[in-house]
Amino acid sequence: MNRELEYMFVQSARVWIPDAEEVWKSAELIKDYKNGDASLQLMLEDGTNIEHKLDPKTKNLPYLRNPDILVGENDLTALSYLHEPAVLHNLKVRFMDSKLIYTYCGIVLVAINPYETLPIYGTDIINAYSGQNMGDMDPHIFAVAEESYKQMARDERNQSIIVSGESGAGKTVSAKYAMRYFATVSGSASEANVEEKVLASNPIMEAIGNAKTTRNDNSSRFGKYIEIGFDSRYRIIGANMRTYLLEKSRVVFQADEERNYHVFYQLCASAHLPEFKNLRLSSANDFLYTRQGRSPVIDGVDDTKELRSTRLAFTMLGINESYQMGLFQVLAAILHLGNVEIKDKDSDSSIIPPNNRHLTAFCELVGVSYPDMSQWLCHRKLKTATETYVKPLPRLQATNARDALSKHIYAKLFNWIVEHVNKALITNVKQHSFIGVLDIYGFETFEINSFEQFCINYANEKLQQQFNMHVFKLEQEEYMKEQIPWTLIDFYDNQPCINLIEAKMGILDLLDEECKMPRGSDESWAQKLYNTHLKTCSLFEKPRMSNRAFIIQHFADKVEYQCDGFLEKNKDTVNEEQIKVLKASKFDLLVELFHDEEKAITPTGQVPGTGGRTRLSIKPDKSRGASSKEHKKTVGCQFRNSLQMLMETLNATTPHYVRCIKPNDFKMAFSFDPKRAVQQLRACGVLETIRISAAGFPSRWTYQEFFSRYRVLMKQKDVLTDKKLTCKNVLERLVQDQDKYQFGKTKIFFRAGQVAYLEKLRADKLRAACIRIQKTIRCWLARKKYLRKRSAAITLQRFTRGYQARCLVKFMRRTQAATVIQKYQRMYVARKLYRQKQAAALAIQTILRAYMARLKYQALLREHKAVIIQKHIRGWLARCWYKRCLEAIVYLQCCIRRMRAKQELKKLKIEARSVEHFKKLNKGMENKIMQLQRKIDEQTKENRLVNDKLVGLESSYTVESERMRSELSRLRGAEEDAKNKGNQVSSLLEELERLRKELSATQQEKKTIEDWAQTYRDEMEKMVSELKDQNGSLKKEKDDLNRLIQEQSQQMTEKMARSIAAETQQLETDLNEERSRYQNLLTEHLRLEEKYDDLKEEMALSSNVSKPGHRRTDSTHSSNESEYTYNSEYAELEEGSRTSEDVTRGMDTSLTLKLQKRVTELEQEKQSLRNELENKEDQFQRARARDDAQFKKARGAELEYESLKRQELESENKKLRHDLAEMRQSLLGDAATGAGAPGSPAYKVLLDQLNASCEELQVRKEEVLILRSQLVSQKEAMHHKETMTEPSVFADDVNKLKDADEIKQAYIGLKDTNRSPRFMRQPLEVGDLLSRLRSAAPDFCKLNEDGELWLVNQGLKETIRLLEHQLQTQRRTYDNEVESMRGELQNVKEENNRQQQLLAQNLQLPPEARIEASLQHEITRLTNENLDLMAADPTASRETRVIILRRMVDLMEQLEKQDRTIRKLKKQLKVYSKRIGEMGAGQTEGQTSPGQIVDEPIHPVNIPRREKDFQGMLEYKKEDEMKLVKNLILELKPRGVAVNLIPGLPAYILFMCLRHADYVNDDQKVRTLLTSTINSIKKILKKRGDDFETVSFWLSNTCRFLHCLKQYSGDEAFMKHNTSRQNEHSLNNFDLAEYRQVISDLAIQIYQQLIKCMENILQPMIVSGMLEHETIQGVSGVKPTGLRKRTSSIADEGTYTLDSILRQLSAFHSTMCQHGTDPELIKQVVKQQFYIIGAVTLNNLLLRKDMCSWSKGMQIRYNVSQLEEWLRDKGLMNCGAKETLEPLIQAAQLLQVKKKTDEDAEAICSMCLALTTAQIVKVLNLYTPVNEFEERVSVAFIRTIQTRLRDRCESPQLLMDTKMIYPVTFPFNPSTLALETIQIPSSLNLSFLTRV
Q1: pTM for this prediction
Q2: Which of 440, 1261, 1289, 1551 is the 20 to 30 Å CA partner of 1477?
C-alpha cells in the first residue's frame, strides 16, 4: 500500500484540497511525497505555491484527481477515484463545458437544471432512445423512461420513477418529459387519446398546484404520484394520480417575491373576457391573496395564454364549459373573501361593515346568504353537555377563521379537480401493469422551518431509506451473480431518525396528543418533546437560545424547526357553522364539493388516493361510524398514512431514481455554484451512492476489455490463449495487494483507485515507448537535415565557381567586340561625308539645267496662247449677229400665225353653238371611236414597222459614226503633234529660264527644309518614343481589361451557372417536397385505413352475435374511389361491417370525433382537389362549347343526313320483316297441303323471295358502307372548303337546306350519283366585259369644247391601255381559278377511285370484318387529319379532334346497331333456309324414280374459319374472378414465382385478363377486376407486410402492372418503344388513367412498406456494425466504464458486424433483382437504405460520448469505404446513395481533424457543410480522448466555431430524421415481352383462363 501511495503521490501528481469558496480546489505536487512527511508542497492552478499540512492524527492524504481521460464520464461510478470532489468536478465539467445536464451515478440519473430551453426533448430524440439499452446512449431522462418501460415488459413487474430535488431543480419538468416519452413510445390501446389526456393533466395541475417561489418560477407545492396504466400489449390505457400535502397556507399568505397559485393570476389577467364579467375580477394587485408577494408577474409568462391552455386541457379531460365556469366562480369567490374587511367592534368582538361589496360578491358567486355568512365570520358556536352558546370572535381570530375557510374551500376544490382528472384518465380496459412517476419535494431547509418543511423532510427520510436499501440490494445481487465473496458494507441507516418522527411517543404522536388537549399549545408541546427525546435520542437537540424550537439531525443536514403554528396546521380547523352555510348554497358545484362533509370539526386537507383506481389501495372502512372518526384525523396522521401507502407501492415496484440539482439560486443559465450543488448532492443521496460503491468494488471490467486496454503492460510470454488466465497473471504481477481486486465469472472487480493506478502504469509504459520513438525519429530527422545541408553546400560551391568563369569569358568577349565596333563606326562616318558632298554637286547641276529649260518653254507658250485668244473672239462676234437676225424672223412668224388661229377659233365656236352640229357630231362619235381605234391599231402597226426600220438605221449609223470618229481622232492627233513640235523650242527656253529662277529659291528652301526636317525628325523621334510608351501602357491596360473582362465573363458565367443550378436544385427540391407531401398523405391514409380495419376486426371479434347473409355494398362508387373500399366479395370483411354499426355506438366519443375529424379533413382535401379539377374541366368545356357553337349549323345538316339514313334503313328492315312474315305464313299455310314442295309454284315463289331478300340485304349492307364512305368524303369536302379561297356550292347548299323535303331530295341526288357535285366557276364573257367597260367609260359629251381632236385621241389611247390591263388581269385570275379547280377535281377523282377500291376490298371481306376494316380506315384518316391540324394549329386541332371523335363514335354506334340487326335477320333467314332444305329433302326422296335424274338439294355448308393468332388476352367467367384473385394474389408464394417463372408474371396475367374485358367492352368487369386486384394486394400486404420477399415481389408486380397500363394505353407518349404487334394490343374502349393513379398510389404505399420492412431488419445491425464493432482491430481503445455500460434489459442477441450489414444489403439487392424490380426503383431503394444507415449511425454518434474519439472516426471512415465498395460492385455509384452518407463522413472527419487554432476552425467550417451547427458543436462537446496523449477540445475553440457558423440558415434540429422517406418516382419502363408468347404454368391453378 505504501509503495502504491509513494508511486501515486509524486511530483506533478494532482490532488484536491478543501476550499471555503469553491468547496474543493485542484493543486499539483511540486515535490514527491515520502512516508512520514507532515505536509505536502503544492502549487495551485493560478501558480501559487502553498504548503498543505496533514492531520497529525490520521495522516490522511488529500484526494487524488482522476486522469484527464476519465473527466466528463457519463457515469460517475466509472471514475477511478470515487469521492466528493471527483463527483463535483465531473458534474461541473459536463454541465459547464459540454452543456450536458444529465449524468449517471450508478442507478441514479442526476439532472442539473440548465435554466434554458434545450433542443433535446423532441420526437427525434425520443425515437433515438426508443429500444436502446440504457448504457448505450448518453444519460437522459428518456433513457430512464425506456429502461423502466423495457423492464416492465420483460420482468412483468410494475415500475416507478422517483423524481426528487429542491424547489426549482426541475422535478416537474423531468416528470413531464418522462410521461411524454411513455405517451409517444407506447401509444394508446383504445385510440381514445389517453396519452394526450395524461399530458393534458399537466397544465391543470400546474395551474392549481404550482406557484412562484424565490427559488423557482413554477414550483410544485404538492407531491404527486401518477400511475400510468398499460394493457397486455404495453399500450397506455389510463392513468391515476395521487397527491400529497398541498400547501394550503399559500392561498392566504405569500412571502416577498413569491406568488399565489397560478390560476388566480390567470383569472385576473383574463378578467376582461366577456364570460368572466360576472366574476367581478380586476387586477391581481386589487386582491389581498394575490398581492402580498409584490410580484404578480413572471417574466416571459403570459397568464392569459396560460388560462387558455388550462381551459383547453379541462375540455380535453371531459370537464365541460359549465363546470369550468363553476370552478372559476369558486376561485373568484375565494379572492373576494380574502378582501372582506373585518373591523373591531370592541376588544372581544368584531364586525363586518354592512353592504361590504366583496362579501356581497362572495355570497352571490357561491349562492349563500349574506347575513348568515357575515354572522358566522365574526362568531362561533360552542357546545356543552346541556346547551349551546354563540360566542363573538375578536378581529384577529375572525380573520384567521376567514383565512381557514378560504384554505378549506381551495383544498376541497383541489381534491374535486384531482378526482375528475382521475375519472377522465380511467378506461374500461383491464390494466396489466403500470409505471408510476413520483414528483415529490426534496429535502428543504430555510431560515424559518415550520410544519410543511417537517413533513417534507420526513417524506425524504423514508425515500432515502428505501433508496439505500435498493442500492445495497443491487450491489449484493451483482456480487452474488459474479460469485465474489463480499462482506456487509457499512452504510448510513436513517431508521433512528424515522423512529424519532413516527414511532410510538414520537414527534407526530406527541403532536396529535397535544392537539387533543383542550388547552394544548405549541409551548407545551415543545416541552413534551424536550422531556421525551432530549436525553434519549442523539438525533434530537434543543437550540441554546430558544424554548420554542427543536433540531433534528436528518440524513442530509441538521434542521431547526420553529414550533409556532404546528398545532394549528396539524388540526386544520374550520368553523362548523360556516361549512353549514356553504352546504346550504344554491350553487350546485359548491354543494358537490362538500357533499361528503357530515361534521366539519377537523376536515381533512387531503384524502389519499382520491378519485382514482390503484393497484395498492386501502380498503374503505366497513362502518359509517368509522367515517366520523376518519374526519377527526389530523393532517400529520393523514400524511403518515398516505406516505406509508406510497412506500408500500414503491416497494412493490422496481424503482428508478432521478435526482434534480439546482445549480444556482439566481436562475442563471449554465451557471454552477459548487456550494449549492454539493449541498444538494449530500442531501439527495448521490454521494451516499458513491460512498457505497467506493466501499466495495466500483470499477468493473470484462476480461476482454481489460485485455484490450492493458495489452501494452503484458509481455509476449504473458499472453495465453485463455484471456481470463492471462489477466490473472498480469494483475498478480502488477498489483501485489490481493484485496484490491477480485475475479468474477465474467468481470474483474477493482477497488477505488486501482484503475487510476493501472492507467498510470499504462501511461508510463506508453510514455516510455513514445520517448523512444521520438528519440529515434529525432535522430533520423537530424541526420536527414545534416545530409541535406551538406548537399546544399556542395551545390552552392559548384554554381558559384561556374558563375565566376562565365563572368570572365563575358568580359573578354565584350573587349573584342568594342574594338570591332570602333573600326566600323569610323569607316561609316568617312563614307557618309563623301556621299553628302557628291550628292550636293549633282543637285546643283540638275537644278541649273532645269531652270534654263523652263525659261525657254514659257516664252513659246505665251505666243501660242495669244493666237488662240484672237481666234475665239472673232468667232463669238459672228455668232451673236446671226442669233439676233433669227429671233426677229421667228417673232414675226408667230404674230402672223396667232392672228390666223384666232380667226379660225372664232369660226369653230360659232359652229359648235348650233344644235344640228352637236347632234351630228354626237351621232357619229361611236363610229369615229371605232374608226379611231382601227386607225390606232393601223398606226401601231406602222409605228412598229417604222421602229424596226429606225432600229436598223440606227445600227448602221452607229457603225459609220464609230468609223468616222476614229478617223477624226487620228487626224487630230497628227495635228497636235505638229503643233507640239513647233512650240517645243519656245517652251523649252521658257522652262529653262524658269528653272534658273527656281534654283536659287530651291536652295534657300532646301536649307530651311533641312533645318525643319531635323527639328521635325527630333520631334518625331521624341513623339514616337512617347507613343511607344503610351502604346505599351495601352497594351498593358488592354491586356488588363481583357483579363478583367474574361474574369468577369467567367464569373458571370459561373454565377449564371450557379444560379441556374440553384434554381434547378430549388425546383427539384420543391418537386420532391410536393411528392413527399403527397406520399406522406398516402401514408397517413394507409395508416387510418389500417386502423379502421383493425377496429372493424376488433368489433367483429367483440361482437358475439353474427348475422348470416350477404349485404351488398354500394356499386355506384366511381373507379377512383375503389382504393378506399374493400370489395363486397370478402366475407370476413363483410361480417365485420355488419356488426360495426352496433359496436361503434359503444366506442369512446373522443375516438369517434377523432376519426370523424380525420376523415373530414381527408374528404375536404379530396373534395378541394376534385373541385379544382372540375373547375379546370368546366373552363375547358366552356371554351370548347364556344368553339362548338360555330359548328352547330354545319353539323345540323350532317345529323339530318344521318337521321334520314337511319329512317331509310329502318324502312328497309321493316320491309324485310314483312317479307319474313309472309314467308312464315306461306310455310305455315302450305305445310299441311304439301304446296311447299320443291318445284311447286309456292316453293319457287318462296325461294325467289328468299334470294331477293338475301340480295337486298347484301345491297343494303353495301349501301351502308357506301353511305359511310360518302359521309367520309363529305367530311373531307368540308375540310377542303375551309382551305379553299372560294366556298363550295355543296356546303353552302347543305347549310341552306331547312326542311325535310329539301334534305331528302339532296340525299336522293347524292345516292344516285354517289358523289356530291362540285361547283365550277364560269369565266367572264367578252360581252360582259365590254358591258362593264361601257358602263365604266367616261362621258365624251362632257369634253371641253375648246379641246382639239388629238387631245381626244390621246385620252382614248389611255383608256384603251387601261382596259387592256384590266382584261389581262381578269384572264390571269380566271386561268388561276381554272387550274385550281382542275387540281381539286383531280384530287376528288383520285379520292373517289381510292374510296371505290376500298369499298371493293370491304365488300370482299366477311361481314364481321367489314366494320373493323372501315373503322380502321376511318381511324387512319382521322389520325392523318389530326396530325395535319396539329401541325397547323394545335389548339384548333384539339377541338377538331374532339368533334371528329364524337362524330366517329356516333357513326360507329349507329353502324354497329344496324349491323347487329342485319346479322340477326341473316340468322333468321339461315334458319328458315335450313328448314326449307330439310322439307325439300324429304319430298325428293318420295318422288324420284330410278331412271330419273334428280337435282339434290344444296345443303348449307359451314365453312370453318381459319383460327386467329393468339391476341395476348385471357378470358375468364365472372364467377371465376374470386378464384383468379385468390390463386394469383392471396395464395401465391413469391419465392417459387421469383425463382421458377418470369419476373412480373402475375402482373402480365392480370393485364391480359383486363385486356379481354376491355375487348368485350364490359365496364363492370373491368371495374371489379381492378378493384379486386387492388384490395387483394392490400390484404396480402397487411397479412404478410413484415416479409421482405412478399413486399418486394408485389412492389415489382404492381409497378409492372402500372407500366403495362401505360404501355398499352394508346397514348403516343407511351407507345414510342412498342413494336407494331404491341401497338395492336392497346386498350380500345376504356381510358384507365384514373386507375393508373390509384395503382401508382398503391405502389407508393408498397414502397413505403418495403422501406419500413428493411428498416426493421437493418435497425438492430447498424449501431453494432457501424459503431461498436472494431472492423480494424487494435485501433480503438477501451476506456474504464461504469455500472451503466451494459444492462440486462435485453438478452444478448449476438453481435452484428459490418459484414452482416453488407450481406443483408446484398440479400435485399438480389431479391429485388430476382423479382424483376425496375433498376431505377432499386436505386431509390438503395439510396433510402444508405440514408437510414447514415442517419441512425450519426444519431447514435451524437448521443454517445464514448463513441466520439479519433480512433472511432477512423473506424467509421473505413466502414463507409466498405459501403462505397459495395455500391461500386453493384454498379450503383450514381444512385445518390453515397451522398446520403456525407453527414456521417464529415462527422468522422471532424473527429480526426485538428481542433486547436483559428485555421483549424476555418477548415472545419468549410469541410462540414452537410452538418448543422448544432451537430458540429455537439460532436466537439462530446469529443473524448481515449488516451491521455490526446487533448480535449477547448471551450474557446467551440465558441469560435459557433461564432463562424452563426450566419448559417439551417434547422436547429440536432438529430437526423430516421423516419424520413425520399419521395419515390416510377419512371416508365416498357416491356419487350410479347403478350401472345406468355405461357401460364399449371402450378398457378389457373386452368379456368382461356387464351383468346
Answers
A1: 0.60
A2: 1261
